[in-house]
Amino acid sequence: KAGVTQTPRYLIKTRGQQVTLSCSPISGHRSVSWYQQTPGQGLQFLFEYFSETQRNKGNFPGRFSGRQFSNSRSEMNVSTLELGDSALYLCASSRGQGKEKLFFGSGTQLSVL
Amino acid sequence: QQQVKQSPQSLIVQKGGIPIINCAYENTAFDYFPWYQQFPGKGPALLIAIRPDVSEKKEGRFTISFNKSAKQFSLHIMDSQPGDSATYFCAASTGANNLFFGTGTRLTVIP
């Protein structure tokens, strides 16, 4: 069974640009969550989608947005990139809405220059 | 504000030693406490988890100790091996809500 797949693996952007990251959850999983990981801050929750609906949102500015498609695949978008957005962006999927058995992808490493 | 506080930031032990990583929380509504293990270049992977109705849970060489009154929980790794060298994260959540993670502990096990 394939795990959570995130693309691209690495991304380099400049300030002011926008970026879209993609996540394909494990087959059969309907919940997708996104986390930002930075050294010293650990993992910070961005948002969660379940059955194409945003169910929960973390404390991030409106520049961070996401969506989920009918096949459970998800994308997150960051507009007007800032240097501080440089981080590893992790996607995680689970079968239901509970937080047990959360499976993470390997992440997209975003560098903003 | 960090919902879950984790210490130490880094830890070095000899092979066979028992590293202990500690976490503390304030929100008494938390009812699920997992530990995740992350290797370089990989996403975190669920290692072991506990609910507040038990004080200890063991899975192989990994043990979670939970102190509800002190609002603390810890991870013990028995007979640690070089392959255990990784970053460990504790986390907590309420019901079906998102996980709040600690800031991580980088463990190095020296052969």
Short description:
Chain A is mostly beta strands and 113 residues long. In chain A, 0% of the residues lie in helices and 53% in strands.
Q: Helices and strands of chain B: which structural class?
A: mainly beta
Percent strand of chain A: over 45%
Over the alpha carbons, how many angstroms does the gyration radius of chain A reach? Answer: 13 Å
Based on the structure, what is the oligomeric state of the protein chains? heterodimer
Please bin the fraction of helical residues of chain B: under 10%
Tell me the overall shape of chain A.
globular
Residue share in helix of chain A: under 10%
Mean pLDDT of chain A: 93
What's the N-to-C terminus distance of chain A?
37 Å
Q: How many runs of DSSP E, i.e. beta strands of chain B?
A: 11
Regions with little confidence, pLDDT below 50 for 5+ residues of chain B: none
User: Helix tally of chain B?
Assistant: 0
Instruction: Using the CA coordinates, give the radius of gyration of chain B.
Output: 13 Å
Q: Tell me the span between the first and last alpha carbons of chain B.
A: 37 Å
**Average residue pLDDT of chain B:** 94
Q: Could you describe the largest sheet of chain B, including whether it forms a barrel?
A: 6 strands, mixed
Number of strands of chain A: 11
Structural topology:
The complex is a heterodimer of chains A (113) and B (111).
Chain A: E1 5-7, E2 10-13, E3 19-24, E4 31-38, E5 42-50, E6 53-57, E7 64-68, E8 74-78, E9 87-94, E10 103-104, E11 108-112
Parallel strand pairs in A: 2-11
Antiparallel strand pairs in A: 1-3, 3-8, 4-5, 4-9, 5-6, 7-8, 9-10, 9-11
Chain B: E1 4-7, E2 10-14, E3 20-25, E4 33-38, E5 45-50, E6 56-59, E7 62-67, E8 72-77, E9 86-92, E10 100-101, E11 105-110
Parallel strand pairs in B: 2-11
Antiparallel strand pairs in B: 1-3, 3-8, 4-5, 4-9, 6-7, 7-8, 9-10, 9-11
